[in-house]
Amino acid sequence: MRDIDAIYYNDFGIAFHWKKETKNYRSKIQVVFRDTGFLLTHKELIRFAEHVQNTMNSNAVCSCCAKKKSCRAMLLETPVPQVSLAVSVNELTAINDLIEGTIFQLNIDNFLSDICNN
């Protein structure tokens, strides 16, 4: 944990900045959940949030998902066009919290930084 600056986390995953001094890492957000990690720009993070919302809004829970927590019948697009994730309803909810919480915290941090620099 000494190599990262945590932004937001929940029981499902974590979002953080690497402490590495290189601009390529510091300007991106690492989001890790399940066995997957994404290194995203702020714009890609917002696009990911949109994909999560679209999936939540467009997929009615099938009877399989209502009965089994492990059913991964929903296909979630990611900011990487070649990668989609099969997720359950519970996982989608946790991913939504992780992404939205990260965006919220980044916005708060930027707001406070602007106030302190004025």
Question: What can you tell me about this protein's structure?
Answer:
This protein is α+β, with helices and mostly antiparallel strands and 118 residues long. The protein has one domain. Helices cover 47% and strands 25% of the residues. It contains 4 helices and 6 strands. The protein has helices spanning 23-26, 42-58, 63-67, 89-117; strands at residues 4-9, 13-18, 29-33, 36-40, 74-77, 84-87. The strands form 2 sheets. It has a 4-stranded antiparallel β-sheet. A hairpin with a 2-residue loop joins strand 3 and strand 4. Helix 2 packs antiparallel against helix 4. The protein starts with a strand and ends with a helix. 16% of the residues are buried.
Radius of gyration: 16 Å
Q: What structural class do helix, strand and pairing data support?
A: alpha+beta
Share of helical residues: 40-55%
Average of per-residue pLDDT values: 88
Q: Return the domain count.
A: 1
Note the overall shape: elongated
Topology, number of strands: 6
Unreliable runs, pLDDT <50, ≥5 residues? Answer: none
The end-to-end span amounts to: 32 Å
For the report, how would you describe the main beta sheet?
Answer: 4 strands, antiparallel
Q: Strands across the major sheet, in which order?
A: 1-2-3-4
Percentage of β-strand residues: 25-35%
SS field, number of helical segments: 4
The succession of helices and strands, N to C, reads EEHEEHHEEH
